[in-house]
Structure to design on (98 residues):
């Protein structure tokens, strides 16, 4: 399943400042907000680097590229659950593989 996921993204958080100059202003605003959300996640990652996570190794916790990739996967492959018991959690869309 992991091998089938993309490694390159062309969405808002992955755009450069030059890209923002080439798209309409409202779309630029939305893309910049999404990039800011991703950057906030990366800041939290660096703040939580000293917290104990038995299930997450030091190499994984310190890998910013992996965190960006995981954020992009959730952003592009997840849906918000409408079940009252899950309180709006993001759920990954499973792929049926025969």
């Amino acid at each position: 399943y992991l091998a089938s996921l993309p490694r390159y993204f062309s969405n808002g958080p992955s755009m450069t400042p030059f890209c923002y100059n080439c798209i309409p202003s409202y779309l630029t605003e939305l893309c910049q907000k999404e990039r800011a959300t991703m950057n906030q996640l990366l800041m939290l990652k660096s703040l939580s680097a000293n917290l104990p996570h038995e299930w997450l190794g030091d190499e994984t916790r310190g890998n910013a590229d992996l965190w960006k990739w995981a954020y992009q996967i959730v952003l592009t492959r997840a849906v918000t659950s409408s079940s009252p018991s899950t309180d709006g959690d993001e759920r990954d869309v499973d792929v049926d593989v025969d």
